[in-house]
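Support request from a user on the community tier.

User writes: "When I paste my C-alpha cells into the form, the page sometimes reloads and wipes my input. The last time it worked, I copied everything first. Here is what I submitted, just in case something in the input itself triggers the reload:"
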C-alpha cells in the first residue's frame, strides 16, 4: 500500500463524497476486494443490517450515517453493545466523523474533512495491524533517576576505582534496592527499613555504613541463631538466599547521600517492575566500565516487542479461542506449565522477568475463567534459564526473578485469597555463570521430548572490527568450518548456536540484533546455514531506535528477528508500530523469496568494470595538501605537470582539496631533477623499506609511484565507498584525466554518461540499502557485492540517450549551486528543490527501463529487483550448463 497515495485518495473522497457510497469507497482504498464490497451493500449477504445507511459486517465493521448531535456518545454505546464482535464502529454525519477500534481501545472524533490525517487508524482493514506495546512505567523512570543520582553522590564521597570496591558497591545497591522493595510489599513491616534507618543513624551520615553493615548481617541470620539483638533490628526477618551472605566494606555516606536514601525510600516500590533492579545497577554502576555492551539494559516495551510475537500472542489467541471450554483452558494451562524460557545472554534477567510476569498474568486469567483457585501457582522459576558472563549480573538476575515471583504472588493473593510465604528466598531460576559461546546450551537448558522452548534476548552486538581477542576466539570456535566468518558481527554466534540448539521441532528463538546481520556479506555467510536447517524468519520488527530509560541510555538502530521451523503459514512484519501479515520474510527482511546475494567479480548486468581507486602506500609523502602543492610549484613551476588532484570519498563529497604526485615510469628521470619531488620520493622509499610487510618492502623499488595504480588517462565515474545513510542518493560524479581517484572510492573508467544516471537512481539506492554493508550506520558501497550484483535490464540506444539527458540535468543543477559542497547539496533537509526534481525525473526514466508502471515504494522496487536477479542467476547457470555439455573433450595419450 502506497501511504502517500492513500492519503491523497482519502482527501479526494472526502471532498467529493456520496452519502450512499462513501463507506464502500473508503473500504476499497484499504484494498478490500471488490467482491466483498459488493456483498456489503444493502441486501448483500455480508451486511447483517437492514436499516438504511447502516453496514453491519461481522467481526469487522459497524457503520452508520446519523444526524445525532451526540455522535461520540452514541458510538461508545454501540461499541459497548455489539452483537457481532465488530472491530470498528464508525458514525458520521459528514461534518463530524467518529471511529472506535474496539480491539485496541482507541478512538478518534474529528471533522469529516480531516479524515485523511488519520489514514493509519484503519490500517487493519489492509492487514496492517497496530502493534500495542506497554509504555514505560513512570515509577521505574523515577526510581532509575533517583538511584543514578545517589550513585553519583556516593562516588563523589568515595573516589575509589578499584575493582573490589566497585564490586562491593554493586552488591550494596542490590541490597538497598531489595530493602526498598521489601518494605513496600509486606516482606518487611510497612516502610520499616526507611523508618529504622532514619531513627537510628545520625543526620550527617557518619554512622550509616556501620548501621547498614550490622543490619545486613542480621538479615543473613536465622531467627534461632540471633542473640541479644535490640528490638528494632530483631524485627527484620531472615532473608536467606545468599543475598546478604558476602561480607562487604560499605562506602562512606554524607548528609546529602543519607537524605537521598531516605527520599528514595518514600517511593512506592511495589509498583516498580523487578527488571528495574538489575537495570539500575547496570545503568549506574557498570556505567564506569569501558565495555559499552554492559551499559544499557532493555526496557519493558522493548522486551514486549520480543516476547509477544515469539510466544505470548499465540498463547492469548489460544486463550480467546478456548472461551468457556474448560477442557481447552485446562489443556492451555498444562502447555504453559511445560514451557521453558531461555535467555543465553541474560544480563540481569530482564527478558526472563517480564516473560515470567506475563505468563503468571495469563495463568490468573485462565484460572478466573475456570473458577479454580485451589492452590499455589504452578508456574515455577525453574522453567526460566539463563547464561551470563558477569557474576554480579547472575546474582542480580536470580534476585530479580524472585522479586518478580513475590510481586506476582501478591497479585495472585488479591484474586484468590491464597498467600504464598515470601521468605526465605528460594527457587530463583536456573541462571548459569559462563560464556554462552563456550557452554553447551543443552547442559543449561536440557531438551526433552515434547518440550516447548523459547530462546530470546539481547546479546552483545560488536561488529567484526570491534571484537576483542577473546571474542574473536569465540567466533573461531562457533563458526569452525565457515568461510569469511570473521566478517560477521559477534551476535551471529547466538544465531548460529540457537539454530543448532533448535534442531528440535517446537523450539523458536528471537533476538534483538543490529541491522548489519541482514545486510552485506553477512547475509550470504550466516543465513544459508539457517535455511539449510529448515528454519526461517517468522516475525521481524524492522529498523527502529533501541532506547530505554537507563542513565546514559543506549540508542542504536536494531531489528528484532524471530526464527522457527518452516511450518508457519503467515509471517508478521512490524514497521513503525504497525503489523502486517506476509507469506514470507527473507534474510534481507523483505517479503520476497529467500535469495542470497553473493559478491561476484563481474557485473551480472554486463555494466562496465568498477574497481578500487589507486592506493598510495607511501607514508604520506606522495600526497599533498593545497598549501604544499602551491609551495612546490612556487619553488619549481615545472613540477606542476607531475601533480594531479586527488579524490577519495571524503574529498569528493565535502569538497576538500587534496593533491598527489603522479609520475609515470617514463617521467622519473626528469621528475627527480626537481629537489622537492626527489625528497618526497626518497622519503617514500624509506617508509616502504621500514614496513614490516614484505609486499610493501618490494614497492620500494618504484618509490615514485602509488603502491596500487588503477588510474587511466581518461574520464571516470567516482563512486564513494562510504556515504551517509540519511542521504536519498549517494553523490556520484565524473572526473577528468587530470584527477586521480584514491582507494577510499571506487572508479569506473571509460564509462558513458548514462551509467551515472543509473547509479544515481532511487531503484539503485534501494539495492544499496538492502545489499550493501555498513560502516556504523553509513552505507559501505562494494563493487563485488553491490555494483556487480545490481540487476539492470538490457536497454536500447534510445533509452541510453534518454538517461544521458536526465543524468546531465542532475549535473547542471549541481553546477548552479557550485558554491555548495555535495554534502550540503545532498543533505535531505537542505537539498535544492530543483536538484530533487532533476533526480525525480531521472528516477522515472530509469524505472521505465524495468517496467511501464511506476513503482510505488522501495518494497515494490526490491521485489522486482530480486525477481530479476533470480532470473539472471538462473540464466547464467543455464548458460554454464550448456557450455559444459558442448565443451570438446580433451584427447589424452593412451597409456602403454
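"...and here is what came back when it finally went through:"
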Amino acid at each position: 500500500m502506497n501511504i502517500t497515495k492513500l492519503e491523497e485518495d482519502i482527501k479526494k473522497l472526502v471532498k467529493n463524497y456520496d452519502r450512499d457510497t462513501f463507506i464502500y469507497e473508503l473500504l476499497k482504498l484499504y484494498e478490500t476486494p471488490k467482491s466483498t464490497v459488493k456483498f456489503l451493500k444493502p441486501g448483500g449477504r455480508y451486511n447483517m443490517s437492514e436499516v438504511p445507511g447502516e453496514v453491519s459486517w461481522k467481526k469487522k465493521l459497524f457503520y452508520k450515517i446519523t444526524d445525532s448531535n451526540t455522535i461520540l456518545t452514541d458510538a461508545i454505546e454501540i461499541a459497548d453493545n455489539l452483537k457481532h464482535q465488530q472491530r470498528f464502529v464508525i458514525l458520521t454525519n459528514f461534518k463530524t466523523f467518529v471511529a472506535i477500534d474496539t480491539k485496541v481501545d482507541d478512538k478518534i472524533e474529528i471533522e469529516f474533512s480531516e479524515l485523511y490525517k488519520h489514514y493509519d487508524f484503519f490500517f487493519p482493514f489492509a492487514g496492517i495491524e497496530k502493534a500495542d506495546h506497554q509504555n514505560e512505567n513512570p515509577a521505574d523512570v523515577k526510581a532509575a533517576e533517583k538511584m543514578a543520582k545517589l550513585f553519583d553522590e556516593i562516588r563523589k564521597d568515595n573516589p575509589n576505582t578499584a575493582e573490589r570496591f566497585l564490586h562491593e558497591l554493586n552488591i550494596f545497591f542490590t541490597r538497598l534496592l531489595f530493602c526498598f522493595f521489601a518494605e513496600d510489599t509486606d516482606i518487611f513491616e510497612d516502610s520499616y527499613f526507611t523508618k529504622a534507618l532514619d531513627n537510628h543513624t545520625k543526620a550527617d551520615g557518619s554512622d550509616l555504613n556501620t548501621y547498614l553493615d550490622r543490619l545486613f548481617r542480621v538479615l543473613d541470620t536465622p531467627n534461632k541463631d540471633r542473640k541479644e539483638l535490640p528490638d528494632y533490628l530483631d524485627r527484620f526477618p531472615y532473608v536467606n538466599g545468599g543475598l546478604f551472605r558476602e561480607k562487604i566494606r560499605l562506602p562512606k555516606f554524607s548528609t546529602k547521600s543519607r537524605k537521598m536514601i531516605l527520599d528514595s525510600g518514600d517511593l512506592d516500590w511495589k509498583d516498580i517492575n523487578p527488571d528495574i533492579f538489575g537495570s539500575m545497577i547496570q545503568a549506574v554502576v557498570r556505567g564506569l566500565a569501558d565495555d559499552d555492551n554492559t551499559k544499557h539494559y532493555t526496557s519493558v516495551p522493548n522486551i514486549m516487542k520480543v516476547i509477544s510475537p515469539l510466544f505470548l500472542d499465540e498463547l492469548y489467541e489460544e486463550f480467546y479461542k478456548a472461551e468457556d471450554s474448560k477442557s481447552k483452558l485446562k489443556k492451555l494451562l498444562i502447555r504453559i506449565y511445560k514451557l521453558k524460557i531461555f535467555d543465553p545472554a541474560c544480563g540481569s534477567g530482564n527478558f526472563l522477568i517480564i516473560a515470567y510476569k506475563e505468563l503468571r498474568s495469563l495463568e490468573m486469567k485462565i484460572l478466573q475463567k475456570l473458577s479454580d483457585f485451589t492452590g499455589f501457582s504452578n508456574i515455577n522459576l525453574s522453567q526460566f534459564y539463563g547464561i551470563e558472563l558477569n557474576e554480579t549480573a547472575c546474582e542480580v538476575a536470580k534476585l530479580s526473578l524472585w522479586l518478580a515471583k513475590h510481586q506476582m504472588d501478591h497479585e495472585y493473593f488479591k484474586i484468590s485469597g491464597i498467600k504464598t510465604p515470601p521468605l526465605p528466598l528460594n527457587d530463583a531460576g536456573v541462571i548459569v555463570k559462563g560464556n554462552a559461546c563456550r557452554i553447551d546450551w543443552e547442559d543449561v537448558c536440557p531438551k526433552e521430548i515434547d518440550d516447548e522452548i523459547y530462546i530470546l534476548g539481547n546479546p552483545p552486538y560488536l561488529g567484526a572490527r570491534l571484537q576483542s581477542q577473546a571474542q574473536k576466539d569465540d567466533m573461531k570456535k562457533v563458526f569452525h568450518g565457515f568461510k569469511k566468518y570473521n566478517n560477521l558481527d559477534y551476535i551471529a554466534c547466538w544465531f548460529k548456536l540457537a539454530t543448532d540448539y533448535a534442531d528440535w521441532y517446537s523450539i523458536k528463538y528471537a533476538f534483538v540484533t543490529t541491522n548489519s546481520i541482514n545486510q552485506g556479506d553477512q547475509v550470504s555467510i550466516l543465513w544459508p546455514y539457517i535455511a539449510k536447517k529448515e528454519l526461517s524468519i517468522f516475525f521481524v520488527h524492522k529498523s527502529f531506535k533501541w532506547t530505554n530509560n537507563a542513565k546514559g541510555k543506549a540508542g542504536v538502530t536494531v531489528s528484532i528477528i524471530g526464527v522457527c521451523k518452516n511450518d508457519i503459514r503467515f509471517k508478521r512484519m512490524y514497521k513503525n508500530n504497525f503489523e502486517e501479515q506476509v507469506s514470507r520474510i527473507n534474510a534481507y527482511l523483505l517479503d520476497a523469496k529467500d535469495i542470497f546475494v553473493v559478491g561476484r567479480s563481474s557485473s551480472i548486468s554486463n555494466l562496465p568494470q568498477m574497481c578500487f581507486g589507486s592506493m598510495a602506500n607511501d607514508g604520506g609523502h606522495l600526497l599533498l595538501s593545497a598549501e604544499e602543492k602551491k609551495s612546490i610549484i612556487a619553488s619549481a613551476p615545472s613540477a606542476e605537470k607531475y601533480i594531479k588532484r586527488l579524490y577519495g570519498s571524503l574529498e569528493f563529497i565535502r569538497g576538500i582539496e587534496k593533491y598527489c604526485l603522479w609520475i609515470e615510469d617514463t617521467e622519473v628521470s626528469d621528475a627527480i631533477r626537481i629537489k622537492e619531488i626527489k625528497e618526497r620520493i626518497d622519503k617514500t622509499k624509506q617508509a616502504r623499506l621500514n614496513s614490516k610487510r614484505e609486499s610493501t618492502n618490494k614497492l620500494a623499488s618504484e618509490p615514485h609511484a602509488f603502491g596500487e595504480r588503477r588510474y587511466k588517462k581518461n574520464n571516470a565515474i567516482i563512486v564513494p565507498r562510504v556515504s551517509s545513510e540519511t542521504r536519498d542518493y549517494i553523490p556520484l560524479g565524473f572526473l577528468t584525466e587530470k584527477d586521480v581517484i584514491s582507494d577510499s572510492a571506487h572508479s569506473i573508467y571509460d564509462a558513458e554518461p548514462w551509467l551515472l544516471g543509473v547509479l544515481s537512481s532511487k531503484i539503485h539506492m534501494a539495492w544499496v540499502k538492502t545489499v550493501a554493508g555498513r560502516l556504523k550506520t553509513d552505507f559501505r558501497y562494494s563493487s563485488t557485492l553491490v555494483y556487480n550484483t545490481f540487476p539492470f535490464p538490457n536497454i536500447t540506444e534510445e533509452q541510453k540517450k534518454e538517461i544521458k539527458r536526465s543524468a546531465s540535468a542532475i549535473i547542471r543543477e549541481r553546477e548552479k549551486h557550485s558554491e555548495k559542497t555535495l554534502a550540503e547539496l545532498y543533505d535531505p533537509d537542505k537539498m535544492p528543490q530543483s536538484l530533487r526534481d532533476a533526480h525525480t525525473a531521472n528516477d522515472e526514466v530509469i524505472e521505465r527501463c524495468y517496467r511501464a508502471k511506476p513503482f510505488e515504494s522501495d518494497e515494490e522496487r526490491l521485489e522486482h529487483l530480486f525477481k530479476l536477479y533470480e532470473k539472471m542467476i538462473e540464466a547464467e547457470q543455464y548458460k554454464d550448463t550448456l557450455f559444459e555439455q558442448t565443451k570438446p573433450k580433451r584427447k589424452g595419450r593412451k597409456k602403454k
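Agent notes: The reload is a front-end session timeout and is unrelated to the input. The chain has 31 helices and 26 strands. The first helix runs from residue 3 to 15. Escalated to web team.
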